[in-house]
Specification:
Helix content is 0%, strand content 45%. It is an all-beta fold. A five-stranded mixed β-barrel has the order 1-2-3-5-4.
Length: 82
C-alpha cells in the first residue's frame, strides 16, 4: 500500500499515515523498515507500507514503512541569458 505521512513525533515514538483510500493508520517507531526511520519533519512524505490486522484504540497500524523514491525530480530553470 502507499500513502502520505501526516506526522511522526520521535519523542513519542509514533505518528500517523493517510492511505490513498483516506484511512488513517498509526505507525510506531518499530514499524519502519531498517534505516527508514523519519524525523519530525516528515509531513507530506510519500511512503509505502503494509497494513496489519491488529488495531489499537486509535487506529489500525502500519508496518514495514519506507519512503517512496522520487524518480521524476524537477529540473531547475536557468534565470540568466547565455
Amino acid at each position: 500500500m502507499q500513502g502520505m505521512m501526516l506526522w511522526f513525533n520521535p519523542a513519542k515514538q509514533h505518528g500517523f499515515i493517510r492511505t490513498e483510500q483516506g484511512e488513517r493508520l498509526r505507525v510506531d517507531q518499530d514499524g519502519f523498515a531498517a534505516g527508514q526511520l523519519l524525523g519530525d519533519r516528515c509531513r507530506g512524505t510519500q511512503v509505502s507500507f503494509d497494513r496489519t490486522a491488529e488495531e489499537t484504540e486509535e487506529a489500525a497500524r502500519a508496518v514495514n514503512v519506507a519512503v517512496v523514491p522520487l524518480y521524476a525530480a524537477r529540473r531547475a530553470r536557468s534565470r540568466g541569458r547565455r
